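User: tokens in, sequence out, please.
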């Protein structure tokens, strides 16, 4: 019984891969060339490696962003910081 409501958050799968990889299958069907086939194999390999490491596609994008930008996040400008509101003095 895999139709229960708590299963609605499961990732969408396409032949055991993330469904986002299915976009490249459509690209291969529309434009069948050797380089699109190699791109499909490369994308499926990347998705497989990510799943073996326990990362979803969105988590892998966040990890790549962290690797590119670094762990240090710049501080907000003083104009964008939240202001303290004293509600007790009214």
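Assistant: Sequence out:
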């Amino acid at each position: 019984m895999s139709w229960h409501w708590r299963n609605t958050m499961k990732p969408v799968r396409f032949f055991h891969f993330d469904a986002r990889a299915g976009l490249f299958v459509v690209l291969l069907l529309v434009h069948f060339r050797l380089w699109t086939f190699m791109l499909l194999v490369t994308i499926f390999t990347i998705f497989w490696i990510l799943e073996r490491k326990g990362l979803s596609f969105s988590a892998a994008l966040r990890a790549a962003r962290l690797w590119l930008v670094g762990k240090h996040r710049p501080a907000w400008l003083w104009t964008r910081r939240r202001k303290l509101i004293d509600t007790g003095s009214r």
